[in-house]
Amino acid sequence: MFAYIKGNLEIKTNGYVVVDVGGIGYKIFMSQNAIEKLGESGKEVKIHTYVRVREDDISIFGFNSNEELRMFELLLSVSGIGAKSSLTILSNISPSSFALAVISNDIGKLKKLPGIGPKTAQRIILELKDKLKTEEAVEDNVEEIKEAIIENDKVSEAISALQVLGYSRREIDVALENIDKNSLSIEEIIRQGLKKLSK
Predict the structure, then answer these.
(1) Which of 30, 21, 22 is nearest to 12 (CA)?
(2) Which CATH number fits the domain 67-140, given the four candidates 3.30.160.20, 3.30.365.10, 1.10.150.20, 3.40.50.10230?
(3) pLDDT reading at 139 higher than 60
(4) Interacting residues of 91 by C-beta distance below 8 A, sequence separation 6+
(5) Domain boundaries, the chain
């Protein structure tokens, strides 16, 4: 409906802002981080928007960049995550860090986000990993994310090898959780995983 709204920032408050465009005040829900980055009231701002239309409600959600907007849309596509939860997540992690956590299977990092438990973290990874690998959803840390994709492939091979040895995916995830997978070879990841699994 609206790609962005550009006008004077009239009100900044907890959870939303009001932007005046030609005498009409648009109430735009935003993450606290995004609101803080807008600066002082009275200045002109440009806010990228997502409009949600329901039978009894039309709400506008705002973002400082297209990157944040794309992350919001991706989060909405995950079953069980709504607009408010998505804004809370955006308040606590940058889009690039979020993408990195998803691509590298970092359940621990996702679990630290408000309202995200282990099951939701696993669902986010399951539903978004392939989308994030193919979509240009992240502008920062592109090299880091490419490395994470390579690392993820290395970890996948190690997990497959451990599964062949008869361990369940759950046992393997727990065993590999605190291993520094970035600097280790596949063989070393398997070796350290086995050491933990055999305890």
Answers:
(1) 30
(2) 1.10.150.20
(3) no
(4) 31, 32, 33, 34
(5) 4-63, 67-140, 143-197
CATH code of 4-63, in short, is: 2.40.50.140
pTM of this prediction? 0.65
Q: What is the pLDDT of residue 93?
A: 86
Extract the tokens encoding 76: 């909405």
**Fold match between 4-63 and 67-140?**
no
Residues facing residue 25 across a β-bridge: 20
Which range has the worst mean pLDDT, 14-28, 51-65, 66-80, 171-185? 171-185
Local confidence band at 140 (pLDDT 50, 70, 90 cut-offs)? very low
CB contact set of 70 (below 8 Å; sequence gap of 6+): 95, 135, 137
Q: What is the mean pLDDT of residues 152-159?
A: 72
DSSP string, 123-183: HHHHHHHHHHHHS----SSHHHHHHHHHHHHHHHHHHHHHHHTT--HHHHHHHHTTS-TTT
